[in-house]
UniProtKB/TrEMBL annotation:
Pathway recorded for this protein: Protein modification; protein ubiquitination
PANTHER family: E3 UBIQUITIN-PROTEIN LIGASE SIAH2
Keyword set includes Iron-sulfur: no
GO biological process, one term: proteasome-mediated ubiquitin-dependent protein catabolic process
Cellular component, GO annotation: cytoplasm
Gene3D superfamilies attached to this UniProt entry: Apoptosis, Tumor Necrosis Factor Receptor Associated Protein 2, Chain A, Classic Zinc Finger
Free-text note on domains in this protein's UniProt record: The RING-type zinc finger domain is essential for ubiquitin ligase activity. The SBD domain (substrate-binding domain) mediates the interaction with substrate proteins. It is related to the TRAF family.
Segment forming the signal sequence: none
Keyword vocabulary terms for this entry: Ligase, Metal-binding, Transferase, Ubl conjugation pathway, Zinc, Zinc-finger
InterPro entries in the record: 7-in-absentia-prot_TRAF-dom, SINA-like_animal, TRAF-like, Znf_SIAH
Protein name: E3 ubiquitin-protein ligase
CDD domains the record matches: Sina
Enzyme Commission number(s) of this protein: 2.3.2.27
């Protein structure tokens, strides 16, 4: 199905649906969580789409930045999104607050590369929460936006913490997460 965009595999018809679901050459969906955006396009068009359709997303330059999530006490499910640009690539930083059990909320923080799974293997990211006497750190390889935030959360490829931990590191309801991207 994706031969026109570069896929050269020839598969038996029974293997085709499984491959098409993960094919690197399938169109990319809008990676912005928490929106009902139906956009699809090529990898090269993702950043242009984000800059034009999701203008509220801030982009910071550099390998070390602070991702500031404001008003973490907002009720219900909330997504905070920011972009980080370094090493000639763009990374999407996501903090997602969800209710996991009745009344129990959890935060999920992850980094996605605006790129392929193969490109994502070339990077590592570190998320750090700092408090006066505490530090919480998570290090991992970013997922590709082809996989998305949902897959990162489902595979536990993210920093997970509860509301009490968020409050331990928050300052007046705002949570600063130090984000460092490095090459492998």
């Amino acid at each position: 199905q994706y031969a026109t965009t570069g896929c050269s595999l020839t598969l038996h018809h029974t293997e085709k649906p499984k491959h098409e679901a993960i094919c690197e050459y399938r169109p990319y969906s809008c990676p912005c969580p928490g929106t009902s955006c139906d956009w699809e396009g090529s990898l090269e068009a993702v950043m242009s789409h984000l800059m034009h359709a999701h203008k509220s997303i801030t982009t910071l330059q550099g390998e070390d930045i602070i991702f500031l999530a404001t008003d973490i006490n907002l009720p219900g499910a909330v997504d905070w999104v920011m972009m980080q640009s370094c090493f000639g690539h763009h990374f999407m930083l996501v903090l997602k607050k969800q209710e996991k059990c009745e009344g129990h909320q959890q935060f999920f923080a992850t980094v996605l590369l605006i790129g392929t799974r193969k490109q994502a293997e070339n990077f590592q990211y570190r998320l750090e929460l700092h408090g006066s006497c505490h530090r919480l750190t998570w290090e991992a390889s970013p997922c590709s936006i082809h996989d998305g935030v949902t897959v990162a959360i489902r595979n536990s490829n993210c920093l997970v913490f509860d509301t009490a931990t968020a409050h331990l590191f928050a300052d007046n309801g705002n949570l600063g997460i130090n984000v460092t991207i490095s090459m492998c």
